[in-house]
Amino acid sequence: MSNLENLLKDKKVEDFTREQLVQMANDHDISFKETNKDETIFKKLVASFSGEAKEVDLVKVKFLLSPTGMFKLAYNIGEEVELPEPLATELIESKYAEKV
């Protein structure tokens, strides 16, 4: 069991401050954006040691801004697509898309 896994075992996002989550992510080379919510960072930390062997849920989103520059995605404003939940959450949090 990794050190990170021990830290997060039986914990919830509410058990940590934002600063603690950011520090853990930085210490373990987990990438995130400053606009991510605490829950998103926590999910990325947990996913880093869980192997993410499970199937990822798809979420339908509608683009409000072009994601081409920021996210390197070739979609247009107004386009509705299904994306993996972690990416959809990041797009929604950063106000580039809304859930449909």
Provide an overview of this structure.
The chain is an alpha+beta fold. It has helices spanning 3-8, 18-27, 38-50, 68-71, 85-93; strands at residues 58-63, 80-84, 97-99. Helix 2 (18-27) runs parallel beside helix 3. The protein is elongated, with a radius of gyration of 15 Å. The mean pLDDT is 86.
Number of domains: 2
Contiguous uncertain segments of 5+ residues: none
- Tally of extended strands? 3
Q: Helix and strand succession?
A: HHHEHEHE
Describe the main β-sheet briefly: 3 strands, antiparallel
Straight-line N-to-C gap:
39 Å
Helix fraction bin: 40-55%
Give the amount of beta strand, in percent: 5-15%
Biggest sheet: strand arrangement: 2-1-3
Rough shape?
Answer: elongated
Mean pLDDT level: 86
Rounded to an integer in angstroms, the radius of gyration calculated over CA atoms is: 15 Å
Continuous helix count: 5
Helix vs. strand class: alpha+beta
